[in-house]
Amino acid sequence: MNVFLSTERQRALTMVEVLAMVAILAILFSLLLPALSRGCTKCQRISCINNLKQIGTAFRIWENDNGNEYPWEVSTNLGGSKEYTFGPVFRHFQAMQNELGQSPKVVTCPEDKQREAATNFDNFHNWNVSYFLGVTASLTNASDASPNLFLSGDRNLTNILGSGPGLFRLTTNDSVGWSHEIHAYKQITAGNILFPDLRVCVLLTPDLRKKLLEPGAAPRLISLP
Fold it and tell me: What's the alpha-carbon Rg for the chain, to the nearest Å?
């Protein structure tokens, strides 16, 4: 059997070649980083939409178990949050903790850097909440709610409503929009709205104003955290 041995030594990379490879890798990384960042942002936005869908499902379970009424239509003596209609918004979510799966994390958007997810409903407050609630002093029955009603959505509503927290009357004449606090990319701002039929719509500011003009969307009291 013949064995062939190569006596040629494998050439080592020179310092110039190493530096060139490092430079190429750095350029590739810089090109890929924005795409990775956009992908991460997209995942966070999807998580926010899923949060609102879970909140909508919790509302549906609640109303089915409480005479087709929302928490702010039921007295605190019966497990609701009616006495907090003009109080902090977290009380309404707190009343639905069983329907929310005993986890308050669902009411915090991962893109909302000014809010921190709570670990339990005992140590829970407005600063753990990323979403507004559409409540009203007239207490419309949930089963009669318009499908265009703003049931919940991202808290960063601006203009006439201000920046919260508090209770604001939302009308069709309001020049409402979104701030850059949460779902903003470059100069584009958008937000999510939850409707009573469990739809969650991603709306730019012009689309938000159009939705507000649809029958049944307003007037409405908005509780901002």
Answer: 25
